[in-house]
Amino acid sequence: MNRPQVQTIMQFALDPLWEDATCQYTDPEIFFALDLGSQVQAKEVCDSCPIRMQCLDYAIQAKIEYGIFGGFTPEERNKIKKTLH
After folding, report:
1. Left, alpha or beta for 16 (phi > 0: left; psi -120 to 50: alpha)?
2. Is the model's pLDDT at 66 over the cut of 80?
3. pTM > 0.85: yes or no
């Protein structure tokens, strides 16, 4: 099975798809904060994002170990990744 190549963060950020991301209007600090309140707030932003699944897929494929992507913490993404293999 062919896997799509993982884009670099710069390629991902420049992708026109990213223009639809809800997080672009939010303080990026909440996506990388360690406190539970910020994580909940970041997940709420992701919940309404039209490219949430693409963001999550990117974070899993790129093995990003920090921050909220697609509404999931690194630990949650690792669980998803394990179920895919």
Report:
1. alpha
2. yes
3. no
Cα distance between residue 75 and residue 65, in whole Å:
8
**Model confidence over 12-47: pLDDT tens digits?**
667 777 888 999 889 999 999 999 999 999 999 999
In sequence order, the β-bridge partners of residue 69 are: 72
Look up tokens 């190549």; give the residue: 5
- Owner of token pair 């309140």: 37
pLDDT for 12:
62
CA distances (Å), origin 26, targets 6, 20, 23, 46, 85: 25, 13, 5, 10, 33
The CA distance from 56 to 64, in Å, is 10
Q: Where are the alpha helices (DSSP H) in the chain?
A: 9-14, 36-47, 52-61, 74-84
Tokens of 37: 């309140």
